[in-house]
Design goal:
The chain contains 4 helices and 10 strands, in the order ββαβαββαβαββββ. With about 160 residues, it is of the alpha/beta class. The two termini are about 20 Å apart. Belongs to the dihydrofolate reductase family. One of its GO terms (cellular component) is cytosol. This is Dihydrofolate reductase. GO terms for molecular function: dihydrofolate reductase activity; NADP+ binding.
Length: about 160
């Protein structure tokens, strides 16, 4: 299998990624980066992540939802019962982005080629979902692009890409 598998997530200082099925921080540049990276590619997500999308399936990308319920309706998305089955359905050289949630990230971490994280320099007040630990013996920081706070971004953050060692 020659697919490129990237995990994309925004994490706070404690690796928190969500609360009550919502993102912890509203960062327009993070959303722009997400769109720029994933457009034209395949995105794989869990059912709850799909349900959290404000307008349903994301345009201009192949939406794949993982669910143990084969009868689930996810308009605009294909549904698979396992990450393995979803990955097997991908074409050669297809770039796949894993977009959440936590259990899908955990399953995908051993298979991923890169992590595209937005590391937010803040701690959310309430978090009920966390990103798995990024093991420095496995992952090498390839690039870091730091951004200060501004009128649209209430906390500083960095776009950090990790590759497998």
């Amino acid at each position: 299998m020659t697919n490129m598998i990237s995990i994309i997530a925004a994490v706070d200082r404690r690796m928190g990624i969500g609360f009550q099925n919502k993102l912890l921080f509203w960062l327009p540049n993070d959303l722009k980066r997400f769109k720029a990276l994933t457009t034209g590619n395949t995105i794989i997500m869990g059912r709850k992540t799909f349900e959290s999308l404000p307008k349903g399936a994301l345009p201009n990308r192949r939406n794949v939802v993982l669910s143990s319920n084969p009868a689930i309706e996810c308009p605009g998305a294909e549904v698979f019962s396992s990450l393995e089955a979803a990955l097997q359905s991908c074409a050669e050289n297809e770039h796949v982005y894993i977009i959440g949630g936590a259990s899908i990230y955990r399953q995908a971490l051993p298979l991923a080629d890169e992590l595209c994280l937005t590391e937010i320099d803040d701690t959310a007040a309430e978090v009920d979902v966390f990103f798995p630990a990024v093991d420095p013996t496995i992952w090498h920081e390839k690039s870091r692009e730091a951004h200060p706070t501004d009128e649209k971004h209430l906390c500083s953050y960095a776009f950090v890409d990790y590759v497998r060692r």
